[in-house]
Write a structure and sequence with these properties.
This is 4'-phosphopantetheinyl transferase. It is built from seven helices and ten strands. The chain is an alpha+beta fold. It folds into two domains: about 1-100, Ribosomal Protein L22, Chain A (Alpha-Beta Complex), CATH 3.90.470; about 105-210, 4'-phosphopantetheinyl transferase domain (Ribosomal Protein L22, Chain A, Alpha-Beta Complex). Strands 1-5-4 form a three-stranded antiparallel sheet, with helices on one face. The protein has a three-stranded antiparallel sheet with strand order 6-10-9, with helices on one face. The protein has a two-stranded antiparallel sheet with strand order 2-3. β9 (about 195-200) and β10 form a beta hairpin.
Length: about 220
């Protein structure tokens, strides 16, 4: 697992820009604000650099494709290799999970005011009851911890966001590493999942998820 700050200096920005594909450059140029463009370039450029370290390739030689669900994958690896990855960013923080042989999902959520409608969209009926019973002082942390878990699971599932966040249901009283209580309403399916919490910054919640139980996080920074 890798983490980095997207607000890079000019020299690093220029170096990352040179490694991007034509499509990525076009997308970068569509950002209205310079800060957002620079963060996008820093995210994609560093992703390419890190994948290149694993594959012994220059960052510009990395070919990124997209599955039918829109999830990116690396098309530049030997046939016998199965490197999977997932990138997430929130404000200036980026986090990358790389795995060997199984799909992985990661999500980072900066703490911010909770929009009134969001708990209704994110939580199941049972989760919503737990959330409503929480003291006001605890709600922000619990909400974004839960959101990061669900997003990470959906990204690991590889189906994009066709499924609603309520597809994965958690016990909101459990903090840190956990397993979903239900997946698609089934406890048996939930037992196949593992969700690990990241605590690198007090200003955000983050989680890594995979549909397997025998894995752990190795911090590479």
């Amino acid at each position: 697992m890798w983490e980095w700050d997207l607000d890079l200096c000019a020299g690093e920005y220029d170096g990352h820009w040179e490694t991007l594909s034509e499509e990525e450059c076009e997308r970068a140029n569509k950002f209205r604000f310079e800060r957002h463009r620079r963060r996008y370039v820093a995210g994609r450029g560093e992703l390419r650099r890190l994948l290149g370290r694993y594959l012994a390739l220059a960052p510009s030689e990395i070919i990124l494709r997209y599955g039918s669900d829109g999830k990116p994958f690396c098309a530049t690896q030997p046939a016998e290799w199965t490197i999977c990855f997932n990138l997430s960013h929130s404000e200036n923080m980026a986090a990358l999970a790389i795995s060997n042989g199984f799909e992985v999902g990661i999500d980072v959520e900066q703490f911010r005011p909770i929009e009134e409608s969001l708990p209704l969209e994110v939580f199941s009926v049972q989760e919503r009851a737990q959330f409503t019973a929480l003291p006001d002082a605890e709600r922000q942390n619990v909400f974004f911890e839960s959101w990061a878990r669900k997003e990470a699971c959906l990204k690991a599932l590889g189906t994009g966001f066709i499924l609603p966040p309520t597809h994965f249901e958690f016990d909101l009283s459990v903090h840190g590493d956990t397993t979903p209580r239900l997946v698609g309403g089934e406890a048996e399916e939930a037992a196949h999942w593992r969700v690990l919490a990241l605590s690198s910054s007090p200003a955000c919640a983050a989680a890594v998820a995979a549909r397997r139980t025998n894995w752990s996080i190795v911090n590479m920074n």
